[in-house]
Design brief:
- The structure is a single chain.
- 36% of the residues lie in helices and 20% in strands.
- By secondary structure, the chain is an alpha/beta fold.
- A seven-stranded mixed β-sheet has the order 9-8-10-11-12-14-15, with helices on both faces. Strands 4-3-5-6-7-13 form a six-stranded parallel β-sheet, with helices on both faces. The protein has a two-stranded antiparallel ribbon with strand order 1-2.
- The relative contact order is 0.10.
Amino acid sequence: MKKKDAIAADMIEQIKSGRFQLGRNIPSRNRLMLHYHCSRTTIESVIDDLTRAGYLAGKQGSGTVLVSVAPNRPVDEILVAYPFNNSYLEQNHELLLPEQPGDIPRRLLDISRSSTELMSASYSGRAVVWPLPDIEYLREMDILRRKNIPQLLLNRDYDTFDAVCTDVRASIRTGINWLRQMAGDDIAIIGRMPTTMRPYQAERVIAFYEICTDCGITLLPGRAFLEPHDTYYSPASAVKCVQKVFAGTAPRGIFLLNVELAMTLIIWAESQNIILGRDYYLLVFDYRQELSAMQGLAMLRQPYELYRNEFLKWLEYRDGGESRKRFMVKLPAELIIGGQTFA
């Protein structure tokens, strides 16, 4: 972080904590130079930035006065915060909200290097968008919330933060209705074991069981295969998981919570003459292009291309003065069958 940004972030923290009193002068330039061990030019630049942000105002002959601890102004820059090593997000690059002509300027913020990177978001007039944020970043989100920085979470629902998410329950219900039509009520569920680091996984599992209960589906014993996360990244472990699914009497319908295991399951089953679309049917949460033309398979494609529209609505909602209420939108996934899309 630049020296100027670090000083500005610290001054905003002091403003929020009450060390600088509203309506009173802030410390002189000379005192700020001594405190922060920097040049007068740097201090002048910081004060100019905080003045434009609405915190400070200069009075001729009276120095610089704190005029607001939470200035409200339209968003003029978007920071898209994500760890640059997140390969899953790179596969779903739509969530990075690429800038288009006439848009508010935005830039990517690499939060994998240091949490202090987020301090550059502490100016009024900036907003932070979090695509698929891990729960470990809740602390940083809370820090920005206490600084009154607008934040929008994409496809994660944490605490009371504004969010645009896939409607998991409605999406799974649509998929299960298709799976029942094809396979009847003999359905198995396969997926990663829910953990605190992946709360979305618990949401999918709970939704599946609730929908089965609502539909009167009685799950047979031994039809739940929830595996540790590492299973999906070890070929040998993935094959063992698939072998357990097809041991004994194989289920007619399979709901796969995570698309990463789909190809391993299909290939191994075919090697045992268990053919997709003949011997079993597969519903997959999430989408992969290479699976789209397979018979006997349906995918729930999350509507990431619609997230951008909701993001723009969120900006208007904020600037309309209604930001005290939570902005929460849930969008149903598309059902993809044989390469065709069904609402």
